[in-house]
Each structure stands twice: as C-alpha cells, then as structure tokens.
Design brief:
single chain, 428 residues, alpha+beta, FAD/NAD(P)-binding domain, Polyamine Oxidase, Chain A, domain 2, 3 domains, six-stranded mixed sheet, five-stranded antiparallel sheet, globular
Amino acid sequence: MRRESSLAVVGAGWAGLAAAVRATEAGARVSVFEMSPSPGGRARSVERGGELVDNGQHILIGAYRRCLALMSTIGVDEASAFARLPLALVDAQGRGLRLPAGSPLASFARGVAGHPAWSWRDKLSLLGHAARWAAGGFAVDPDRPVSQWCAALPAAVRRELIEPLCVAALNTEASQASARVFLRVLRDGLFTGRGGADLLLPRVALGDLFPAPALAWLRGRGAAIRLGRRVMAIGREGGAWLVDGQPFDSVVLACSAREAARLTQPTDGTWAGTAARFAYEPIVTAWLDAPALRAPFPMIALAGEPAQFAFDLGHLHPAWTGRMTLVASGARRWVEAGAAAFETALGEQIGRELAPLLPAGYRIVATTTEKRATFRCTPGLVRPRQVIAPGLTAAGDYVAGPYPATLEGAVRSGEAAVEMARRTGPGT
C-alpha cells in the first residue's frame, strides 16, 4: 500500500487479519470491521456448554509457510504455539502410515515401505503412482473427482491414505472432491520442502493462536478495530470507496462469500452471483471429558463413521489432560440426521475403536457444528476472482486459487488482496 493511504478491511477472520497486518506493515491507515464480537472467523474460540472451546479441532501443517511467517510477524512463537510432529496416520494401536523426518521424497518412500499392514504390491503400486504424479507435474484433468483419479490404486491405499487425507484437506468426500486441488495439496504437503507434511497441533486455544495476538499487534500500531459492526453497504463516490458512508482509498472484502455477494451486488452482479453460488460442507466436533484418558499419540486415525480423527489434547497442554476431541468432516448427513443420531453413532464408534483408551468412561461436554465450514471443493468449481473493481478486492479461502478452504489459503488471499488493492487503487 502507499504510505498514508487508507484501507478498510471488512471481516476479521484469518484472511482479513492477514490483509490488515500486511497493509499496516506497508504504512497504510487500516480500519477493520467485523460483524462478530470476536475475531477469527471460522477458526476461533466459542462458548459451548458453559466452557470456552475452539469451534473445531483445527490443525496446520508445515507447508503452511505464509501462516507461520505471518504469526512470526506479530510475535507468535511457533515452538510455544504448536507441537510439530511428523505426519502419522495411525490407529489407536499405532498401526498405519508414519513419515520419518528427512527430505520429502525419501521420507515418503520410507514411510510407505514401513507400513505394517500393506502388502509389497500395495506399497510398490503407491510408490509407482507417486513417481508418475511427480513426473507429470501433479497435473490432472480439472473435471476429475479424486475417486476416479485414484481408482487404480490398491483398495487399502485408497481407504487408509487417500480418502482420509481428502476429507481432512478438502472437507469433501473423494467421490465428489476435485482431484486437481487434492493433488496440489499432496504436492505441497508431501513432496515439497522438508517438514511440509509435519502436523502442527495448537498448544493454545484458537483465539490465542492468531486472532487475539493479531488484534493486539494492529491496535498497537494505530489500526481502528470495530468489532460487532456489520457493514451494510459499500459503494464508489468520486475517487473513494465508501464503507457505510466513510471514505477509504481501497477496500478488502474479507467477510464470508455470502456477505461479500450481498455487498458487491450493486457494483458487480456477476461477481456477486459467483460468490453466492457455493455449496458448503459442515464439520462437527465433539469434545469429550475422559478422566483416565491417555492415548499413546496425540492424533488417532479412525476407520469408521462418523468421525475420521480423534485427538488426545493432554499431549498438547497439561491443562487439557483428560480431554479428547473427535472430528467429523464432510458431515452433512450427520447434521441432517440431528444431534441425537450423531452422538449415538459417535458412541458406537468410540466403543469399537477407542474404548481401551477410556477405561473410566467419558462424557460429551460440548459439540460444535460449523454448518458452512468450507465450500464443497468439487471438480471444475468456478471461484470468484480476487479483484472485483479498481481498489476493491476480495480475500478469503473461497476466492480463485489453487488451495481448498484452508487457513493457508485464507492467509495467502489476504496478503495478495492488499497487493492487488495497491496496484489497482487510486493513484496507480
């Protein structure tokens, strides 16, 4: 941004805060408008059942380099904020895929070779396919779903690796998910850069991981923060953008796609229509109080339904000892079935897969449901462009880009929106 230019950021999720931080760094006068009383968007802390819990068990990976760089800018120490662990997709007995430390290709090959349950035919097939993906630049027809793209892989590999990673990364089942986007995730996470596949499990509440430190950093540098303020209208007048009548040189819309569609309808109805057409997938997270819990690992891959992963939070912070979360991604049918059906199915799954870890039993203390957790990342999905008009840009995990709805995608879009606003705004 030009020094002393004014920028309005509408939305204080991860994309909006990323935009605000980078614009403030560049010398702009920044105002942040957020309709919620607290920042963080869909990765925040909320009150449920009288307790403050995260709105889901969010994790990052080592390939989220822009997220980590942004956190470093505002003074968040990675070692204190996260437990960094090599990727391990293992069940409660420790069986499954483990990637050892090392260079990406060697780590993947060693992890596949050491899988205790796959046959050598399974392993060689996966390694051969991975070599062909790399040789082809991880390119695939944009209209192919993941299930079709991976149909030639052994059933065990699809069931224990591809399908869990797909629903975790894209929050869309393999039969409906974009193979192109999934391959980009695999490329950046498993095959690009040492430690890219590492799991980064938060040791602090989501609100304290990034949103609260970002607000403190912004306030300390003079940014205007307006929480609990829903923007009703934006428009252009002369050389300025008006946000509810207040003039700014440029605006970054970092609110939800639906809010952005509402606000941009008078400016660009075509853009607004694209933003309004997304279908969404929910994520349901159950929080368990289990006094005698002590799982051998912090993250456990589950084979059945409704949840795909369980987390023993006592591995991450002493205050969380005896607390477990179970995460059900792509959970539309469970949301439609209702809370009672979900908890019944979850109890049956716990009995099958986790009972030995819970000798003293458990109780569900909270359930969080993000009904529009992410857009459905389907083949050929058209996502709205980032530049809406000169000086007006969009930021969010839903805008056009190579990634699914992830924190890294949100942060990258927020940073890019500031640069695009600078290049297209007044005086350029």
